[in-house]
Amino acid sequence: MLSNNDGCIVARSNEAKALGIGMAEPFFKVKEIIESNNVQVFSSNYTLYGDFSQRVMSILQELEEHVECYSIDEAFIEFRESTPDDLEGYARRIRAMIKQYTGIPVSIGIAETKTLAKIANRIAKKKAEHNGVFVINAETDTDALLEKIEVEDVWGIGNKSALKLQYNGITNVLQLKNADDLWIRKWFGIQGIRTVTELRGVSCIALEEAPPPRQSIMYSRSFGERVTSYQYLEEAVSTFATKVAEKLRKYGLLAACVHVNLGTNRFNKLPKYYAAHAMELPQPDNATPVLVSSALEILRYIFREGYEYQKAGVLVTGLSDAETAQLKLFEQRDEKTLKLMDALDRINRRWGRTVLEPASNGITKAWTMRRDRKTPGYTTCWHEIPVVK
DNA sequence: TCTGGGGTCCTAGGACCC
DNA sequence: TCTGGGGTCCTAGGACCC
User: Fold this and answer.
1) Buried (b) or exposed (e) across A260-276, using 16+ Cβ within 10 A?
2) For residue A322, pLDDT beyond 70
3) Of all nucleotides in the shown strands, which has a C1' nearest the CA of A220?
């Protein structure tokens, strides 16, 4: 499966992995392998994945009380007083249920801490003999298990940390678990200490059942083709600001600050330019016209003639709850605009996301991203529902 | 020709205050 | 040769996650 704009490989079947197609590899670099082996390639379709994600998550939430929806395809469940006697059997029943209701195969790892559960899950997924479920408990020879896993496979240890660890002779997870606390603190910060402590079976990364309040909302895209004209850039930034405003209203939030960034391609040899600038709004807001006009004002300020632009983005920060927002003394949110935005959202929900949009978004959409091999929105779009003939 | 997007948290360093 | 201490706040950059 490909990233946005059909740029990079972001998910692979086991068969594709076996052909040597790497994670995050640019598509054009492995095109030959793909074509000569008849590998099926799909553009990403996050609306569809989001729909299936919700189906799976709601099954978990119906079964269990303490569920953290961690990402689009992962959840943590904490068994507190409800711990079933036969954990493994219970996990297998959950797995079968999800498969039956959604057709999605999942793997389940169980352990004392999140970090160890991620390791258990990895084993469940990788070793066919476990059939999708693996439990690390008091009877498990955990040390022998950890010794066989490399540090870079631990949740919280990325590229850089793995290199640093390996350089210091720590290559497997058992060594990491037994590493010196002070040394870890010094070189890997408190995140490092948390990871190591969790490996020792002491939980210190809490379950987050209610998602923490958001700090920022961003919409940014690479363009399907290079953009040189100010007009196209303006249309793109206006469209991104529109999306951000929609998201703010969807989550019932106001933004205090708008940021815009734009840049050229980092990889080619053409002249490079990157700029980002932020502006505080007169008062926290989520109305499309306010967001769009501020974003365009920033764009005018940072735009430079003569570059081939490759991407742009709009970011809002200083988010607050729209219901309880602090407005400046004597200031009120404009009733007319509130009603207008409400009508706009209802019409777009009913008739399609871009039925009504600001004129500044333009109609050419020359810059929109490539998605040449999109999976149909089987369950999310009326025109793309599977047809039985 | 072609190299993703959206987040979070932590840290270091600078500016500023008394 | 000399060069306070303690604190806050902000920002940029790094690292990580999926």
Assistant:
1) bbbbbbeeeeeeeeebe
2) yes
3) B5
DSSP notation for A337-352: HHHHHHHHHHHHHHH-
Distance C12 C1' – A254 CA (angstroms): 25
Task: Show the domains of chain A with their CATH numbers.
Answer: 4-41 (no CATH), 146-203 (1.10.150.20), 216-361 (3.30.1490.100)
Instruction: List pLDDT tens digits, range A103-153.
Output: 999 999 999 999 999 999 999 999 999 999 999 999 999 999 999 999 999
Window from A167-181, A206-220, A245-259, A313-327 with minimum mean pLDDT: A313-327
CB less than 7 Å from strand C: which protein residues? A 70-74, 118, 154-162, 191
- The CA distance from A130 to A122, in Å, is 11
Q: What is the mean pLDDT of chain A?
A: 90
Q: Which of the nucleotides lies closest to A195 (Cα–C1')?
A: C16
